[in-house]
């Protein structure tokens, strides 16, 4: 049976979160179309509101973007602040950003473990200047500093050192800053942001390419399909748009039809493949699951930082994919939205699967399960009870 799907993808939380920070620094009301309804974006928006209303203890739960972006935001906002989060968030690194802010004149202390949240931040207006930032663990450290830089009298000259993890996300930050009026220059490993306060801009947030990757996986695992994905553009600010190129090696053809991205399945020859996730870490679970489902041998490189995500994604995927010979298969979520969404389509090949915490998809794609049911029930033989407990068999 040919699989037909028509999906309105969620808005990009990466673009949404950056847009919220731009509005916060510019001190104007956000005027954006298609803001993400993900938990991450809700957490960031709520935290910004709490800060502006004078709340001194800010809990960003498990939102890594909020942790990094708000560290700088609080550092240059007068007052004494405590920034904290979930137990997992307290295990994710923040030290390179704290070190850079200290060199720029901020007093930040670790409230518990050195190098990690919670942070005690003594905020004050910063002048800017010249500083280095390590990129090997996360591009969000650099993005956090640069988002603030146009508001500083001296601007910022930022030298990027080390390997550049997730570099397309920094490119997204710079592109959006320019759209809101920032004066940005870049030469080799140095980014210069002049003093040029942000101006309101009616920004349209694109659909999320990371979310699209799970529908690419569904297309790859299907025998025949036509999947329409709405809200995406090519080229895109989002680096994960590379999924279109990568999945072409697994038999998924992509083309634009009016304003809709269309995926179709085509024959392909199985051969050993190689994927580098250093710039696209969120795509690792998707490609790992897809290759496993198709029986395709693949070499994965650029995965050193995946242990710093919501879970240790390499360990988590190895543990879950090892279950594929079992019947039935019960997957563990590892408190990681991307692990769950990458594993779910495998039900097309192995039958019904269940998850211990399917609700974790709320972090980035709240309608994931309803989209799965609405679009794929036509090829299922029935679903078990419960809002999240099963996936199409």
Distinctive features:
single chain, 393 residues, alpha/beta, UDP-n-acetylglucosamine1-carboxyvinyl-transferase, Chain, 2 domains, 4-stranded mixed β-sheet, disordered C terminus
Instruction: Write down how many β-strands occur, each being a DSSP E stretch of 2 or more residues.
Output: 18
**Rounded radius of gyration (Å):** 21 Å
What's the rounded overall pLDDT mean? 92
CATH architecture of the largest domain: Alpha-beta prism
Oligomer: single chain
Highest CATH level, the class of the largest domain: Alpha Beta
User: How many DSSP helices?
Assistant: 13
**CATH level-four homologous superfamily name of the largest domain:** Enolpyruvate transferase domain
Helix content, binned percent: 25-40%
Alpha-beta classification: alpha/beta
The neighbouring-strand order within the major sheet is 1-12-14-13
Net shape: globular
Report low-confidence residues grouped into runs of 5 or more. 378-393
- Domain count: 2
Q: What's the end-to-end separation, in Å?
A: 14 Å
At CATH level 3, the topology of the largest domain is: UDP-n-acetylglucosamine1-carboxyvinyl-transferase, Chain
Q: Strand fraction band?
A: 15-25%
Could you characterize what this model shows?
The protein has 393 residues and is an alpha/beta fold. The chain has two domains: 13-204, UDP-n-acetylglucosamine1-carboxyvinyl-transferase, Chain; 207-379, UDP-n-acetylglucosamine1-carboxyvinyl-transferase, Chain. It has 13 helices and 18 strands. The protein has helices spanning 13-26, 39-52, 64-75, 95-103, 140-148, 167-179, 209-221, 243-248, 284-294, 313-321, 337-343, 347-350, 368-376, and strands spanning 3-8, 32-33, 57-59, 79-84, 107-110, 119-123, 129-134, 156-161, 184-187, 190-193, 203-204, 225-230, 252-257, 260-265, 273-276, 298-301, 329-331, 353-355. A four-stranded mixed sheet has the order 1-12-14-13. Helix 1 (13-26) runs parallel beside helix 2 (39-52), helix 2 (39-52) packs parallel to helix 3 and helix 3 packs parallel to helix 5 (140-148). It is globular, with a radius of gyration of 21 Å.
